[in-house]
Amino acid sequence: MAPHADIEAASSAKADVRSPERYQVIIIGAGLSGMYQLYRLRELGCSVRVFEAGDGVGGTWYWNRYPGARFDSESWTYGLSFSHDLLQEWSWKEHFAAQPETLRYCNYLADKFDLRRDITFNARVVAAAYDENANDWEVGFEDGRRARARFLITAIGPLSAPTMPAIPGVGDFRGEAYHTAKWPHAPVSFKGKRVAVIGTGATGVQTITEVAKTALHLSVFQRTPNWCAPLHNAAIDAETQVHIKASYPEIFARCRESYGCFIHDADPRNALEVPAEEREAFYERRYAEPGFGIWMGNFRDILIDKAANDTVTDFMRRKIRARVHNPELAERLIPTNHGFGTRRVPLESGYYEVYNQPNVRLVDLRETPIERITPNGIRTSDAEHPFDMIIYATGFDAITGAFDRIHIRGRGGLRLKAKWADGPRTYLGLQVAGFPNMLTLVGPHNAATFCNIPRCIEQNVEWVTELLRYMDHKGYTRIEPSPDAEHAWTQHVHESAARLLLLEVDSWMTGVNRNVPGRQQRTFMAYAGGAPKYREKCDAVAAGGYEGFVLA
Ligand code: NA7
């Protein structure tokens, strides 16, 4: 099938007969990665266009407007670091900024660097096909329009394909219903309403804590409890602001050296080497500190050694028991199928205390599973619960889901979804054999998924920019990894994760989503060797003349 015929089939019936717009580079997505890539490619003098499904910039922070949405990264480690002026002009108001502030930051970035003139909004890419004869990519939009470019850069994010629960009757409910990642732009009030939240991941925990403040009644439908830890957010006072702005070089240098580009890095000791009393005091300190210290700044072996993990898991268990007044309820909130840190740790601001409120109730789906959504509410195996509003905090088809939702075809019509049916295969998480000139920012097998993401976005974007500069300089027009390099990297990614305890539990990090057919097997989709090692490898490949890639 000719590439554009394929695109027309995937696009709407209104296929546009006009010839496609042409660029050197097309970027899909105007979140932080797409915007920063645009900025860098403009510097190269490329003709580049960003296509964005939403009507504004910000990606994750554009879509996830749910109540309570905020950073778990320190704000002052999250902003892009490339511009001294930007760092000095922008003043984060809180140590962990809420979504509206982060969205304002994204808009500020777009305005300051005049990025919007190269972004087309309301342009959802539904198909992309490589045309071997022309050596370029044609993308098709939902409305039938098309565009072409030599290079296709995906900046579509690892957590951007929301999933609704596979529960019968989801469409039947007559009240208000929202998925957290598709939250309306208009304010939503919970006052005087009976609200249900389904899901207790990082998103559910933030949502529940906020909704509980004003809802008449809140029912939390929990299938798997998670180990949540306190965020300890606070406003940034004037003196601290001055200090932060003066310390950016040190802050970013520290992030650069840590495993996940956070300011927190693992303690070099093994948990069991430390006397019990000292260990307990260490956990207390980490629990009392803001941010991910309890997860990322813990003893080096808690995520790989079960006995070490048991010590911190026991500590966290006692914390939940101390915070939830009703002992039976506390037990229901304590995870029993995984140890602390082996799933993404939700950071919370009074989450457990919510369950001490008289207007909040926990429905434990392990005992009474949901049977269906009804016009009036939710029916579990033992009762029908009436609601005015249902909030689905049911997560994402993570990491590869956003790729699957675009009909991507490479050389010889090879479908990316088919190639990745048994898990992604990539070289450096940046390219895929059979898909020449397609580059995948923060894609699978990248360090970015477990990263303080803008830090890893910067690394990816700068590497891709240098690659395109190199190709231009050398007169190359096509790049694709060799199948051997792809195989070796994919093996290496799997080996990097082999010792992690998190492989023993279902989560989006192990690629399991029970709401999506074909996503029931655990597969590790990110590079687990840490950001510094990943950067070293990428740099070595570049220094070696892009070893492992076939340039033509
Ligand atoms: P998560 O962490 O994937 O959480 C989704 C939650 O929804 C989780 O508690 C699920 O339970 C629950 N869920 C999903 N489907 C169902 C059905 N069918 N019935 C009941 N409960 C269900 O997504 P988040 O949005 O919270 O967080 C994703 C990441 O975004 C987060 O880690 C941050 O990095 C940003 P389960 O655990 O599968 O039993």
Folded structure, characterized:
There is one protein chain. This protein is of the alpha/beta class and 552 residues long. The protein has 2 domains: 5-57 and 115-161 and 398-551, FAD/NAD(P)-binding domain (3-Layer(bba) Sandwich); 202-392, no CATH class. Helix content is 33%, strand content 16%. It is built from 18 helices and 20 strands. It has helices spanning 3-10, 32-44, 60-63, 75-78, 84-89, 99-112, 202-211, 238-257, 276-288, 293-296, 306-323, 327-333, 351-354, 401-404, 416-419, 453-474, 483-497, 531-543, and strands at 21-28, 48-51, 119-120, 125-131, 136-141, 146-154, 176-179, 194-198, 217-222, 229-230, 347-348, 360-364, 370-373, 377-380, 384-386, 389-392, 407-409, 438-440, 479-481, 549-551. The strands form 5 sheets. Strands 1, 2, 3, 4, 5, 6, 17 and 18 form an 8-stranded mixed sheet that branches. Helix 2 (32-44) runs parallel beside helix 16 (453-474). The longest helix has 22 residues, at 453-474. The chain is globular and about 70 Å long. The model has no long low-confidence stretch (mean pLDDT 96). Residues 159, 165-167, 198-204, 221, 223-224, 344, 365, 370, 393-396, 508, 515 line the site of ligand NA7.
